[in-house]
Write a structure and sequence with these properties.
heterodimer; A: alpha/beta; Cobalt-precorrin-4 Transmethylase, domain 1; Methyltransferase, Cobalt-precorrin-4 Transmethylase, Domain 2; 2 domains; 5-stranded parallel beta sheet; 9 helices; globular; B: mainly alpha; 7 helices
Chain lengths: 262, 99
């Protein structure tokens, strides 16, 4: 029978987008006091910072390789987290951004840990979407906001409301199964994306190409173009597309009257 | 002995007073450092991609850990069994677009 005093516990945390600045106090606490700290982050500065905070810090980045199937990578990451947990340690798995956004193994590790009887908790972090709202000065509550992975958006013909904001992730990797160095979106694929969007927006409708700042010394990259210019624009995998809403639709008067009556 | 770009960035990000000093006078703080001339130029560019390049990360490598292949599975009609017309359960998610 497992020693109750050495029962493993898992925290999955986010380090945020901007080096050091975006890590929440509760995530920082977990990172510092973990017996085993595992991390998957996107730059060496964050790695060094994590190693300064916790000597046990071990990278998960070596699970990634160009051309390696994502599913295999994610399974390896989950297995490593669970293997650490089964030793009875307090394990912290730290991921770039928000650990629950675009991080399959984070959710998978939590689910499997709980299934095996371990306490497991995810702590939210600051995501690129959070940075986007701040840097572009847009409020998702104003008209609503829809968020899709760009390849998924095209392939599944996602339905959306153009009078609400639209966010498309990873547009620079449109239709690509993995990332390569110096990759950018293929113009013919951007043309296809534009043609889908043109059914809902005018050619002159504005689009924002957005990249959050990863370092406190740099500013975010914000480029505003017209929808018609999308195919001829360089869109990198890290780029997020923000498409502002069309003029808001009028409220349904019958519903408004019903609200008044109730 | 020179200072590494990584250490410079982490120190700056961890020390709010120093960061404030940098933001008000970047050149002064960079000149005080023991960074190489190319690293100083990268910092003074204030450009994220330039800093990442100086850190030895190409654009693709930077996002490799962040990129998530879209879970695009066959259209629902293709998942229907020809014999029964029932949808197959437990379809395998590939984590990448099937071509």
């Amino acid at each position: 029978m497992a020693d109750r005093a050495r029962r493993g516990q898992l925290f999955v945390v986010g380090t945020g987008i901007k080096l050091v600045a975006h890590t929440t106090l509760e995530a920082l606490d977990c990172i510092k006091r973990a017996d085993i700290l595992l991390y998957g982050v996107s730059d060496p500065a964050t790695e060094v910072w994590l190693r300064r905070l916790n000597a046990s810090a071990t990278t998960l980045n070596d699970c990634y390789a160009e051309g390696k199937p994502r599913v295999k990578t994610y399974l390896e990451i989950t297995e490593r987290i669970l293997a650490a947990l089964r030793t009875g340690a307090l394990v912290c798995a730290a991921f770039y951004g928000h650990p629950g956004v675009f991080v399959d193994p984070a959710h998978d590790a939590i689910r499997r840990a709980r299934r095996e009887g371990f306490p497991a908790q995810m702590l939210p972090g600051i995501s690129t979407e959070d940075c986007l709202f701040a840097d572009l000065g847009v409020d998702p509550g104003a008209n609503g906001c829809q968020s899709f992975e760009a390849t998924d958006f095209l392939a599944r013909r996602r339905r959306f409301d153009p009078t609400s904001a639209l966010i498309l992730w990873q547009a620079g990797a449109l239709g690509e199964p993995s990332i390569g160095e110096r990759m950018k979106a293929r113009p013919e694929r951007l043309r296809r994306l534009m043609s889908v969007l043109r059914k809902h927006y005018a050619a002159s409708h504005p689009i924002v190409l957005y990249e959050a700042s990863q370092f406190p010394i740099s500013d975010p990259r914000i480029k505003r173009i017209r929808l018609s210019a999308l195919p001829s624009t360089k869109v990198w995998p890290i780029t997020t597309l923000y498409i502002p809403p069309k003029p808001s639709r009028k409220p349904d008067q019958a519903v408004m009257r019903w609200f008044d009556e109730k | 002995m020179s200072e590494t770009l990584v250490d410079f960035l982490v120190d700056l990000a961890s020390e709010p007073d120093r960061l404030r000093a940098f933001l008000s006078n970047p050149t002064h703080i960079v000149e005080q450092s023991r960074l190489s001339e190319s690293d100083k130029a990268a910092i003074l560019s204030r450009d994220c991609r330039t800093v990442l390049k100086a850190l030895g990360l190409a654009a693709g490598k930077t996002v490799m850990q962040m990129f998530k292949g879209a879970k695009v599975t066959p259209a629902p009609s293709k998942l229907k069994s020809k014999k029964t017309g029932r949808k197959k359960t437990g379809s395998k998610k590939t984590g990448s677009k099937k071509k």
